[in-house]
Write a structure and sequence with these properties.
- 37% of the residues lie in helices and 17% in strands.
- It is α/β, with parallel strands linked by helices.
- The longest helix is centred in the middle third of the chain and has 21 residues.
- Strands 1, 2, 3, 4, 5, 6 and 7 form a seven-stranded mixed β-sheet that branches. Strands 11, 12, 13, 15, 16 and 17 form a six-stranded parallel β-sheet that branches.
- The radius of gyration is 29 Å and the shape is elongated.
- It folds into two domains: 339 residues, no CATH class; 195 residues, Glycoside hydrolase/deacetylase (TIM Barrel), CATH 3.20.20.370.
- Helix 15 packs parallel to helix 16.
């Protein structure tokens, strides 16, 4: 016999009993709308489920099922999506990343980039003394539609002794604009419990694993179900009261982002953190080879949760994600979610990262191209505060700054002290320089830096852009000593620092490789001023020196 919603004929009696106990009772669990109100695709799944039930009941043996295949679509499979790949090779390590450059300010893209940056910092801070380790990170899409976008981040570490792969998934809901954890794909925590029991059953049946061999969360869930069954059997025999074993609190509302995050913390370490949808319309869950010793050739195992079982476990968001994944499998089209002008220029969340902003004043000049070559070796983004009178002499330098992701700032027309000028002259000077820059790049610079850091109430009152100073002055214009410049930057830079250099001095540019190498090894990320502060952290006329916390 089969419990509704599950195909139990393939499982051992003990596993089948677990799934029976975890199946929904009438009125006991919350689900989405009735099947009659759902999409044609879902109706087909229900029809297929009924066919499976009948077939299983009539046949003494079943044909072997095909291996479960997860739907994971490469980034560049969608029109309008480009992939940016970078590699930073230093004496102590190699760090590579590949990530989407479509809609860089899109919440999901920002979160992918931020998660990758967090993992990079963790990797660099934990480098062994001998060095030579490598981190490679990339992403793929799990589902893409106008309603939902799912992404998978893979982080692979190779130390020459042991390789280690990590995976995490993120889900963007267009209606709320939220980036959500994997738990949001499920109706409630009772559904999460059943999904884990299905995976535990698959491991026991496919790989002959005992309850004691089940890894981590799967072992805990299986043990909980075994205890509940034993209690029930004992009660039936009159040996004790019928008390169910404690299960995770199912009162959390997984449609609420904060509660979904809480559930993700409760279920930390679950293999469902690396969930995808299968080509058969169910779930495909990746298991590392170390947790499934019997997997063929030491490869990862992909465990199934069948379509008819997953149908009742998924939330409305989960059902929409599944439909999108299946549509992508039949052919990826144009990426449906565009840029948001409210977040233009922000590519990662520096409030959660070790970020520093390297800034260069008084250029462009003869050393600026060499500086950009050096920055490129470390995938570093900088902010150039340029003089308006030099823009026409070096238009190619400004074009390259813009193309390579650096930020341009306004440093006045010819380095006048703005605090000594009347308000109208200040306004004209800033506007003239803005126009010169925008003529080359197509956009006005988002911030200004007054020469000498000279600013008063008159200046801050007439400018429309935030005013950016600094908290680390390398004194490069004075010392003209590359070693001293590098030492000062490395000694004083902290998370949130704005570091001041001048790219018109060759010795200043000579210092930059040591600065980049030293801060990179400590796990810092080199970002623009806009990334450092975020658009919400900068207002017209605001005078800012750094984004340090505390």
């Amino acid at each position: 016999m089969h419990t509704p919603g599950h195909v139990l004929g393939n499982y051992s009696p003990r596993v089948a009993n677990r799934l029976r106990r975890a199946s929904p009772r009438a009125g006991s669990l919350r689900y989405g709308p009735p099947v009659a109100d759902t999409s044609l695709r879902r109706k087909l799944f229900v029809t297929a489920a009924a066919g499976l039930l009948l077939t299983s009941a009539c046949q003494a043996t079943e044909e072997p099922t095909a291996p479960t295949e997860a739907i994971r679509t490469p980034l560049d499979a969608f029109e309008g999506v480009t992939v940016e790949s970078t590699t930073v090779e230093a004496g102590h390590s190699t760090v590579g990343t590949s990530y989407p450059r479509v809609a860089a300010s899109h919440p999901l893209m920002m979160e992918v980039r931020t998660r990758m940056a967090q993992r990079q910092t963790e990797f660099l801070e934990g480098l062994p003394d001998r060095g030579g380790s490598e981190l490679q990170q990339d992403a793929s899409f799990l589902a893409v539609s106008s309603q939902v976008v799912g992404a998978r981040i893979t982080s692979a570490v190779s130390s020459g002794v042991q390789d280690d792969d990590e995976h995490q998934t993120l889900w963007y809901e267009a209606s709320s604009g939220e980036v959500l954890p994997w738990t949001s794909l499920f109706a409630d925590e009772a559904a999460l419990e059943r999904a884990h029991l299905s995976l535990a059953g698959a491991l026991q049946e496919e790989y002959d694993m005992t309850s004691q061999q089940l890894p981590g969360v799967l072992g805990e869930v299986a043990s909980r179900a075994d205890e509940a069954q034993e209690t029930e059997e004992a009660a039936a025999e009159g040996e004790g009261e019928n008390q169910e074993a404690a299960a995770p609190d199912d009162s959390l509302d997984l449609s609420d982002p904060e509660q979904a995050d809480e559930a993700a913390e409760n279920w930390a370490g679950s293999p469902l953190e690396d969930l995808a949808f299968s080509t058969a319309g169910g779930l495909a869950v990746n298991m590392p080879p170390g947790e499934v010793p019997e997997a063929s050739g030491g490869r990862e195992a992909v465990l199934p949760v069948k379509a008819e079982a997953s149908e009742e476990m998924l939330s409305e968001l989960g059902l929409a994600a599944r439909d999108a994944a299946l549509d992508n499998e039949s052919g990826a089209g144009e990426f449906p979610l565009g840029d948001s002008p409210d977040h233009q220029g922000v590519s990662m969340d520096c409030a959660r990262l070790k970020c520093v902003a390297l800034t260069f004043d008084d250029g462009p000049g003869e050393h600026t191209d060499r500086l950009m070559d050096i920055l490129d070796e470390y995938d570093a983004r900088a902010t150039f505060y340029v003089l308006g009178e030099l823009v026409g002499e070096h238009p190619e330098a400004l074009e390259r700054m813009d193309e390579e992701g650096h930020e341009l700032g306004n440093h006045t027309w010819q380095h006048d002290d703005l605090a000594e000028l009347p308000p109208e002259e200040v306004r004209q000077d800033i506007a003239r320089t803005n126009d010169a820059i925008s003529e080359i790049t197509g956009a006005e610079p988002p911030t200004i830096r007054p020469p000498y850091g000279s600013v008063d109430d008159t200046v801050s009152g007439v400018v429309d852009q935030p005013i950016i100073l600094w908290d680390v002055d390398t004194q490069d214009w004075q010392s003209r000593d590359s070693d001293k410049v590098a030492e000062h930057a490395l000694t004083n830079a902290e998370t949130g620092s704005v570091v001041l250099f001048h790219d018109i001095h060759g010795k200043s540019v000579d210092a930059v490789p040591d600065v980049l190498d030293g801060l990179h090894e400590e796990g810092y990320h080199f970002v623009t001023i806009t990334d450092l502060f975020g658009l919400g952290g900068m207002g017209s006329g605001d005078v800012l020196t750094d984004a340090r916390i505390g």
